[in-house]
């Protein structure tokens, strides 16, 4: 695969992105949805239609979209088609600068898709770019808990699906990739705080949106030599971000789990409360591309969860 890996933030023009089509299995009733930790039952025929909405919107924006399920061996595909969470590709890996670091599933239900995708990534990018052994201890790290703020700083949550030990194991790789600071926040352990991107997001080069309770949480700041603490507002301000605190405690994942296609354009769910993206004066001119993906969102994640950027034009 002739793919350039280049991601230094969350907002530059997206050039190449990984996705995965939904499973072949329905989640037929509310009890099954509860048992597999989904929000609602899902009809996979409809889910596939909404997945095509996602793919077409990005392709229409000139983005190269790779569906990794198309590259699996026949044997792997037979298993993959039955993995209901496989379309949440964000968690599998992350491109830090030009280096790709592997994730590790925080729940056993998701481990097969990590193994399958990592073998593909190793084949596509080779061991120099994809550091497949970076977290060999197997500590949980799902990249819905990670934001690349800029060329200096990363923000990571330790919570239900990401361990502090995994961050310690990977920090030197992140620093070697070119970043100078890692901010670690610790969200409450609840289903609605499963990942950092269910509670916050980068909305522009200098605007960060976050649920209002997060202003009370300190951040541990790691460099290659030191560790210190700051409040979240101070940490983000120091790295050039205004923080827009959302005060609507009832807002859903769809409201905040969006994807920046370029500095002027955001891909957002039709179910999202778009007022959140218009409150800050620097966001009023943003172009919002709305797509229907609510059948996919019933799995408990949003558009950002369903996309893994490989290349942004910086």
From TrEMBL:
SUPFAM superfamilies: Pentein. It holds the Pfam family ADI. This is Arginine deiminase. It comes from Pontibacillus salipaludis.
């Amino acid at each position: 695969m002739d793919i350039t890996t280049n991601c230094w933030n969350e907002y530059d023009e997206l050039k190449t992105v990984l996705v995965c089509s939904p499973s072949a299995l329905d989640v037929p009733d509310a009890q099954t949805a509860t048992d597999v930790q989904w929000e609602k039952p899902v009809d996979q025929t409809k889910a596939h239609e909404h997945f095509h909405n996602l793919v077409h919107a990005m392709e229409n924006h000139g983005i190269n979209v790779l569906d990794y399920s198309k590259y699996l061996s026949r044997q792997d595909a037979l298993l993959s088609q039955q993995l209901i969470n496989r379309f949440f590709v964000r968690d599998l890996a992350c491109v830090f600068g030009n280096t790709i670091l592997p994730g590790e599933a925080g729940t056993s239900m998701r481990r097969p898709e990590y193994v399958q995708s990592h073998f593909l990534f190793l084949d596509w990018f080779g061991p120099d770019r994809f550091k497949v052994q970076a977290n060999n201890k197997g500590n949980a790290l799902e990249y819905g808990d990670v934001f690349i703020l800029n060329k200096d700083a990363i923000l990571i949550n330790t919570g239900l699906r990401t361990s502090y030990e995994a961050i310690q194991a990977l920090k030197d790789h992140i620093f070697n990739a070119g970043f100078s600071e890692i901010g670690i926040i610790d969200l409450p352990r609840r289903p609605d705080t499963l990942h950092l991107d269910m509670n916050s997001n980068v909305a522009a080069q200098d605007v960060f949106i976050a649920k209002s309770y997060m202003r009370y949480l300190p951040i541990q700041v790691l460099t290659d030599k030191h560790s210190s603490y700051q409040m979240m507002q101070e940490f983000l301000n120091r790295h050039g971000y205004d923080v827009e605190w959302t005060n609507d405690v009832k807002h859903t994942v769809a409201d905040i789990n969006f994807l920046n296609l370029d500095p002027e354009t955001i891909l957002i769910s039709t179910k999202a409360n778009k007022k959140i993206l218009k409150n800050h004066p620097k966001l009023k001119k943003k172009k919002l591309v709305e797509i229907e993906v609510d059948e996919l969102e019933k799995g408990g994640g949003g558009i950002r969860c369903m996309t893994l950027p490989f290349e942004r034009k910086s």
